[in-house]
Every structure is written in structure tokens, then in C-alpha cells.
Amino acid sequence: MAPDLKKSIDELIASNKVVVFMKGTRQFPMCGFSNTVVQILNVMDVPYQTVNILEDDAIRSGMKEYSQWPTFPQVYINGDFFGGCDIMMEAYQSGELKEQLEIALNS
């Protein structure tokens, strides 16, 4: 991965408590998995940043290397990779996501 791309991703993740790298935007998700993650975060009423990976091939391919995760969406909470849609759904249903978000937003 190019050093400038890594630096840009590092800065984006560090400057936002919750970041979702996804297909589309929070207003217009372009796949069902991205839509599910957006709906979960909207229901939880937490601030989050989205990055549309379809607008930039370098970010789209770079994120797979950066996270070592092959699919999208990719959710980062408090600077750490949290997971994709399935992990978000499981964590939401179990209450773990609420705990993680409370920790992140209060730190």
C-alpha cells in the first residue's frame, strides 16, 4: 500500500470515533450489507463517518489490505477494525455493539 494512502486512512480513522467504509453513502447505500450497517448505526443514534469506496479504486483495494478483510462494509470503532455486516448484526443483537459504542464515544 502506498504510504500516502495509508497515512490518509490512518488520519480518517483516528479523527472519527466510528467510520464505515462502504458501497455508497449513508443517504444512499448501494448494497444490502452497507444498508444494514447504516440502519443499525442510525437506530443507535451515534455519530459516524462514511467513506464511499466506489468513488476511489485506491481506497477500495487499499482497505482490503489495510484491514486484512476482503469485503465491505468495514466498520472501525475508536480506531480499531470492528468488522463487517454480520459482525455488526451479531454485536447489535447481543448488546456488545452498544457497549463498544458507549466506550468509544465516552473516551
What does this structure look like?
The protein has helices at residues 3-14, 32-44, 57-67, 85-94, 96-105; strands at residues 18-22, 49-52, 74-77, 80-83. It is of the alpha+beta class and 107 residues long. It has a single domain, classed as Glutaredoxin (3-Layer(aba) Sandwich). Strands 2-1-3-4 form a four-stranded mixed β-sheet, with helices on both faces. It is globular, with a radius of gyration of 13 Å. The mean pLDDT is 95. [2Fe-2S] cluster binds at residue 31. Keywords: 2Fe-2S, Iron, Iron-sulfur, Metal-binding, Redox-active center. Residues 18-81 form the Glutaredoxin domain. This is Glutaredoxin.
Summarize the structure.
This protein is of the alpha+beta class. Helix content is 52%, strand content 16%. It has helices at residues 3-14, 32-44, 57-67, 85-94, 96-105, and strands at residues 18-22, 49-52, 74-77, 80-83.
